[in-house]
Amino acid sequence: MQGIDKYVTLFGRSLRGLVKRERDRRRYANTPYAWLFQPYMGEELVALACQVTPGETPTVSLAAVILDQQQIHLSQAWVTTFSDPQAACEKTIRRHRELYNIETTLQFSVQTLKGLADFIGNRPLIGWQLDQQLSTLNNAFKDHLGFGLPNAQVDVAKLHQRQLRRRHPLVEAPCQFSDALACWQIPAIATRGLLGKATASALLYMRLQRDMTQSG
């Protein structure tokens, strides 16, 4: 299999996931989405934070911010709530706006999800308990575009647990996000809004990467 990107080892993609990625790459080779399935060769990543209120028409709030190995680019962020105002509870939408500091509400559609895909591109995704956060979003992508997000992914929670076990084999790694931030001495920042949570995930990832480099 050719073209496996450089993040495979770091992000621990399974063989099944690699085969599916290659299959989808061929499937969408002649579509406007072909570039999303190509190996990423740059140094940027995208930190994600999602909050979902389930239902027949789920309400999903999302924050995505771009980072590289040196800094987080807060000027390059995507923050919105996806919901159908006619099907979702207005109270739920208002609650998302207030709790997660979100000003924009969009409906799930081909156009809006294509806009999100264009923002993320084929950069690797990072986030705390990422599989859980992406579940509803991936379903929306499949419903409207025919595929889930194909990006390489790293769950910062698993990275935190793995690195802490390396340093302290007999210590049980805390599984709460706030505990992990305190464990790695991440500065206290406002994590009430989703952009704050995405930023904190990015800071934790960068701290873990430095620790992995220093510990060899």
Could you list some keywords that capture this structure?
disordered N terminus, alpha/beta, Nucleotidyltransferase, domain 5, DNA polymerase III subunit epsilon, 17% strand, 216 residues
Give a quick precis of the structure.
It is built from eight helices and six strands, in the order ααβββαβαβαβααα. With 216 residues, it is α/β, with parallel strands linked by helices. Strands 4-3-2-1-5-6 form a six-stranded mixed β-sheet, with helices on both faces.
Task: Summarize the topology.
Elements: H1 8-11, H2 15-27, E1 45-53, E2 59-67, E3 72-82, H3 90-100, E4 105-106, H4 110-120, E5 125-127, H5 130-145, E6 153-155, H6 156-167, H7 177-183, H8 194-215
Parallel strand pairs: 1-5, 3-4, 5-6
Antiparallel strand pairs: 1-2, 2-3
Helix pairs in contact: 6-8
Description:
The protein has helices spanning 8-11, 15-27, 90-100, 110-120, 130-145, 156-167, 177-183, 194-215; strands at 45-53, 59-67, 72-82, 105-106, 125-127, 153-155. The protein has one domain (41-216): Nucleotidyltransferase, domain 5 (2-Layer Sandwich). The protein is globular, with a radius of gyration of 18 Å. It is an alpha/beta fold. Helix 6 packs parallel to helix 8 (194-215). Helix 5 (130-145) links the parallel strand 5 and strand 6. The protein has a six-stranded mixed beta sheet, with helices on both faces.
